[in-house]
Amino acid sequence: MVQLASYLVADSVADYSTDRIDEESVFAVFDPREIDEGLAIRQSIPSDLMALLRGWTQGFVPLNTIERSLSDLIDARESHRVQRASGAITAQDAMAMLEPGDMLIDCTGTRSVFRDQLMPNAGAVDDSSSLAFLTADGPNTLKIRLEYALVITFLYGQRYDCNEQCKYQKNIDNPQYKFIPAVNRTCYDGSISHVTGIVTISAEDYERMPSRFDGTWLRSNFPHVAESMDRFIAKVKDETNGEIVGDLEIVRIPLDLYRARNATSREWRKTGTGDHPLARSAVFLAGDSAMGSPYFQSISLGFECAMFLAGLLGHRDVPLADLFDRYELYIYKQWLRVYNRSKMIKHNKDLLGCVGDTDALLAKLHIY
Questions:
Q1: d(C-alpha 72, C-alpha 64), whole Å
Q2: Helix/strand/coil for 151
Q3: DSSP SS3 for 2
């Protein structure tokens, strides 16, 4: 279940942010003219697509519903038919099909087919000494691992909302594992509250867990984590007199920030290697192929970058080199935006976990 960020349907500069943290980053990174350009692109989006986007910013929706709705919308277009060819494809397969002047948009996700093909003659560089776990999955991928976490979802038979005071009070008896609900990840549909949050775990915990499991497995194998969840949920029940519907649904994931150092084939064109497919064709990375972020931000960011790219490609009279430059700059600025917000979310979450422990709290603060 996902909910898109409200800035995707913003119609003014004032609405183009997720929260106060994001607002500060937006105005620090983007010129007002750049924000206005993005807002103008929204005005050109067909009304049926915009109606879907507006609906998806109002409440939770299954990810496959978004995928299916977009596919149905594309298939319903009479004026510009899309020819689909399903099947596995490698970068080599795709490059073999590229003709000079072709354009390819890679939206194959986190494990992008083309991301690490866009850096000519380069090898991966890791900095294992970095406190931010700075690594490179490949020659064109910069990755920062913030933490390991369990993403835990449950259904609750009463209305339930959670703010920072709630997160603190309900975790006050949990010394290590703390369940932190995301404010925008609790949704009440009239009878059931859908609640999603995260519990930070160690790298050792992560390695010992399967990728997906339920509350029964958690209680049998990691009782201390399960006990922290039980204490949290018990306090929710005391306040609202509800019950859990079903079991916990749990996914263990690394929370990574990553980006492509090059989001286009611009560097290949600069090499002058005219016989290479990427030097004579235009490649753009979109969505999670270009960058990814934790804390439920990626899907909205992917839509945002896709809308900008669509608007950019609509300028048929702009030279390709200029399109590359503008898209690369835009992607980098969106990276700065989501980097700042993600690091601040992580920092605030760490501070919340130390409230009541003065020494631990001071160890997290760096005051100059």
A1: 12
A2: strand
A3: strand
What values do phi and psi take at 336, rounded to 5? -60, -40
Per the DSSP assignment, residues forming a β-bridge with 245 are: 155
For 52-87, the DSSP string reads: HHHHHTTS-B-HHHHHHHHHHHHHH-SSS------S
pTM: 0.89
pLDDT per residue, tens digit, the chain (368 aa), is: 778 999 999 988 889 988 888 999 999 999 989 999 889 998 889 999 999 999 999 877 888 999 999 999 988 887 777 787 888 889 999 999 999 999 999 999 999 999 999 999 765 444 444 434 444 468 999 999 999 999 999 999 998 888 888 898 999 999 889 999 876 667 777 888 888 999 999 999 999 999 999 999 999 999 999 999 999 999 999 999 999 999 999 999 999 999 999 999 999 999 877 789 999 999 999 999 999 999 889 999 999 999 999 999 998 899 999 999 999 999 999 999 999 999 999 998 898 888 878 898 888 887 76
Domains of the chain, earliest start first:
1-77 (no CATH), 144-255 (3.30.70)
DSSP one-letter string for 195-218: EEEEEEE-HHHHHHS-SEEEHHHH
The residue count for the chain: 368
Query: How many other C-beta atoms are found inside a 10 Å radius of the C-beta of residue 60?
Result: 17
One-letter amino acid of 210? P
* Cα gap 108→260, rounded to integer Å: 13
Rg for the chain (alpha carbons), in Å? 22
How far is residue 274's CA from residue 338's CA, in Å, rounded to a whole number?
36
Nearest to residue 293, comparing CAs of 325, 253, 323, 328? 253
Half-sphere exposure of 213 (CA within 13 A, CB side): 17
